[in-house]
Amino acid sequence: MKGVIFSDVFDPIWKITVWLLPVIAILKAEKTPIFAYLKLNSSKNAAILWSTLGISFIASYNILMHILFYSSLVFSPWLTFTQWLNTVFMAGLVEETLFRGYFLQKIKARFSFWKANLFVSFLFVSIHFPIWYMNADKIAHTVVAWSQLSTFIFGFSLLQGWLFRKSNSLWPCIMMHMMNNFMALALVG
Fold it and tell me: What confidence tens digit (pLDDT) does each residue in 132-181 have?
């Protein structure tokens, strides 16, 4: 129980300290307007439209995959506070800020968009391995399951990069990421 409580408190602090604060510090040191660079203050109408499309797509995709690969479909949206905070909110906000808002743009400054998006997607998959390994009993039991997860996360990251480019806003990526994580927790097979 103590390990769970420590993890529930430590996870968001870790993500903020190790992932988010360095991005903010680097952008401040470069005298770059943080919200503008991360595209957190771009057109509200475009952000709302692309957020709605992204959320609708990923929710539908999760439901369809669950129907195809599990014998039953149970939707249980009653998540714990720490699931909402760590898995839905923090992961969506912090991971998208780091990977799409910062890495994708920095790498895209030297390479084409698609080369940058591919590289960032490989990075994005790699940061998920530790959590999959720690939760292997619940997430991935076989090499096939690990391959499926890796393929999904890689495709999801490519789509997020495309969505970021198309919308010119980080908000649709954050919203779609949050919805994907929510659906992963709420759909019980």
Answer: 666 655 666 677 777 888 899 999 999 999 999 999 999 999 999 999 99
CB 58 within 8 A of CB 180: yes
User: Angle at which helices 171-186 and 44-69 pack, to 10 degrees?
Assistant: 20
Cα–Cα distance measured from residue 155 to residue 143, given in angstroms and rounded to the nearest whole number: 18
CA–CA gap between residue 171 and residue 40 (Å, rounded): 6
Phi, psi of 142 (to 5 degrees): -135, 170
- Tell me if the pTM is above 0.85: yes
